[in-house]
Automatic annotation (TrEMBL):
Gene3D superfamilies: FAD/NAD(P)-binding domain. This is lycopene beta-cyclase. It comes from Eleusine coracana subsp. coracana. One of its GO terms (cellular component) is plastid. It is found in: Plastid. Belongs to the lycopene cyclase family.
Length: 623
């Protein structure tokens, strides 16, 4: 037995060596791109520059990229100033660059058929002749004296890691035809006159909010209302959020936000399969995203929030305050920093491997000839697969990793349709989803006349929480707040924003002794992720781990039992209102409701995730 075991191990080892040998050449030919941010603090030009270094050399390190940037920028500046690439003398010129840091390093494989991009792209300089923002000098000074630097991590890849799959030519053509109906994205802007942040300001703002999504603005408005100074930083502060947000009406009712809903359906429906449908007696709505953002911006402006239009590249912290360095060279000093950059996770740090599941969806807001759905019901989930031909490869793909249709029928001719993969790891490829959607629409007899807008949705779900606590405070997508089993987040974030805002205001209050730096951030994190919320999230991650293992039949059995639960259970689960003791009752109730096949499946597929959850809960308790 032992001998057999060692033979197998040897064989595996050999296979690994073989794989490594096979894989090496492709690593060697991978082209990497380093994006380097440089900040000068001498000479005439003190602004921040960024430079992209593209390299084929596998041995090039981030440090080398920084050095190359430093050299090239010095050369470039000398050329401009002295007409030579060599500095006339070190004394004359000195070290122009105080700091050059790699802000991202992306590995992109070379496509042999493409002509290689230029070795080094030009830097994006701030307009010449502009005097440097005063805070840039402060930035350089702080860079010398402060202890922790948090460069913005590279944004996650725009798509989730995707499954490889074969697509038929006809399916691909149908998906392409569907895509071709979508108009080019036209960013919609609010017409607001935004008070701007004054870079000459020397005193730190009480709170800098990085990211102007729902999460960031919800906190900004409340902290400003309490009389504190707030600066909100976003590359496009006036942009109307692009996502189509759906919520349960009771969630918005509880926050007094029903005026920010633009369509309400008194109930929702779920198709389990061709023979079984459920009616959910719970009103659902689409968020009026323009109205909601506009209302939040108005409240921000009325309470004195100032805006800075830029991307934050890095945070530098000292004991009592922080400095946010933006990609336009401006540095914003702040007592508290809130990262609300969604899935970009700009400043919040994670110390465990990030291994989320991905919800991937493709949605269109369309004008159609006709559709078969009741306009008084939103379609929450349609798991029918009769649109996929028996025995076809696409049907088999859907059997293994199912997708469902989510639809908001606004009228007999106007409808939002979204084909969704609830959760998969790796995430499903977008063109696979589009192919399934095209097949479904054809089968349902939905002829699309025109598409008003389309939406590509990639939501990381579950995965570890950020480091708790840490210096930068977080909220929303960046802080692990997406529901790990559903991908929903907006309502929960808006409901949590007052807690975070109140906590910042309370702990900053100098009249009450006031806290600063790490101590203040630790208190805020404690209120954002108290023990009961962390345990709740663990349970939701357990739910996600089970969903990841279910094929179409298993998923159908699961939702068949789920939506038969008492409403307080399924409402509470979807809206993050159940906590651990109730969640255990919910689990037992679900198990009791399930068919025998489903029970067996939950036991077989849920044992490992259950053990993982228990392990994590014990670890969390012992922290
Ligand atoms: C297509 C789609 C549809 C969704 N639909 C729903 C739904 O129906 N219901 C629901 O509950 N949830 C939904 N979600 C999930 C989640 O609620 C949203 O992603 C939500 O927008 C997250 O809010 P947020 O404020 O955390 O981040 P975001 O809305 O992503 O806002 C982040 C902001 O930070 C800015 N930013 C990023 N990097 C920087 C930087 N370095 N410096 C300064 N600013 C920066 C961005 O420009 C952006 O404005 C959806 C998500 C997607 C992608």
């Amino acid at each position: 037995m032992m001998r057999q075991f060692s033979c197998v191990s040897l064989l595996l080892l050999m296979l690994c060596v073989l794989m490594a040998a096979l894989v090496r050449p492709s690593v060697a030919t991978a082209r990497r791109e380093f994006r380097v941010a440089a900040i000068g603090d001498q000479g005439l030009d003190r602004s921040r520059r960024t430079m992209n270094i593209l390299t084929d050399a596998p041995e090039m390190t981030a440090k080398d990229a920084e050095e190359t940037t430093r050299r090239r920028m010095d050369e470039r500046l000398n050329y401009r100033r002295f007409g030579t690439r060599k500095a006339p003398s070190q004394d004359h010129f000195g070290a122009w660059l105080k700091n050059a840091t790699v802000v991202s390093g992306v590995r992109t494989p070379i496509n042999g058929s493409l002509s290689p991009p230029p070795l080094a792209q030009d830097w994006t300089a701030s307009p010449r002749g502009n005097s440097p923002p005063p805070t840039t000098m402060a930035a350089a000074a702080l860079l010398r004296t402060h202890h922790h630097h948090h460069p913005c991590k590279p944004p996650p890849p725009p798509r989730a890691p995707v499954l490889c799959r074969a697509t038929t030519a006809a399916g691909a053509a149908a998906a392409a035809a569907l895509r071709s109906l979508a108009p080019p994205t036209r960013p919609e802007l609010l017409s607001v006159d935004l008070p701007r942040y004054d870079p000459a300001r020397s005193r730190p703002v009480d709170l800098a909010v990085v990211g102007g999504g729902p999460a960031g603005l919800a906190v900004a408005q409340r902290v400003a209302e309490a009389g504190l100074s707030v600066c909100a930083i976003d590359p496009s502060p006036a942009l109307v959020w692009p996502n189509n947000y759906g919520v349960w009406v009771d969630e918005f009712e509880a926050m007094g936000l029903t005026h920010c809903l633009d369509a309400v359906w008194p109930s929702a429906s779920v198709f389990i399969d061709d023979g079984r449908a459920k009616s959910l007696d719970r009103p659902y709505a689409r968020v009026a995203r323009r109205k909601l953002k506009s209302a939040m911006m108005d409240r921000c402006v009325a309470n004195g929030v100032v805006f800075h239009q830029a991307k934050v590249a890095k945070a530098v912290h000292n004991e009592a305050s922080s400095l946010l360095i933006c990609d336009d060279g401006v540095a914003v000093p702040a007592t508290v920093v809130l990262d609300a950059t969604g899935f970009s996770r700009c400043l919040v740090q994670y110390d465990k491997p990030y291994n989320p599941g991905y919800q991937v969806a493709y949605g269109i807001l369309a004008e159609v000839d006709d559709h078969p759905f009741d306009i008084d019901k939103m379609l929450f989930m349609d798991w029918r697969d009769s649109h996929l031909p028996e025995g076809s490869e696409i049907r088999e793909r859907n059997r293994r990793i199912p997708t469902f249709l989510y639809a908001m029928p606004f009228s007999p001719n106007r409808i939002f349709l979204e084909e969704t993969s609830l959760v998969a790891r790796p995430g499903l490829a977008m063109d696979d989803i589009q192919e399934r959607m095209a097949a479904r629409l054809r089968h349902l007899g939905i002829r699309v006349r025109s598409v008003e807008e389309d939406e590509r949705c990639v939501i990381p779900m579950g995965g570890p929480l950020p480091v708790l606590p840490q210096r930068v405070v977080g909220i929303g997508g960046t802080a692990g707040m997406v529901h790990p089993s559903t991908g929903y987040m907006v309502a929960r974030t808006l409901a949590t924003a007052p807690i975070v805002a109140e906590s910042i205001v309370r702990f900053l209050d100098t009249g009450n002794g006031g806290l600063a730096g790490d101590a203040l951030a630790a208190e805020v994190w404690k209120e954002l992720w108290p023990g009961n919320r962390r345990r709740q999230r663990e349970f939701f991650c357990f739910g996600m781990d089970i969903l990841l293992k279910l094929d179409l039949d298993g998923t159908r059995r699961f939702f068949d039992a789920f939506f038969d639960l008492e409403p307080r259970y399924w409402h509470g689960f979807l809206s993050s209102r159940l906590f651990l003791p109730e969640l255990l009752l919910f689990g037992l109730s679900l198990f009791g409701n399930a068919s025998n096949a489903s029970r067996l499946e939950i036991m077989a597929k849920g044992t490992v995730p259950l053990a993982k959850m228990i392990g994590n809960l014990i670890q969390d308790r012992d922290r």
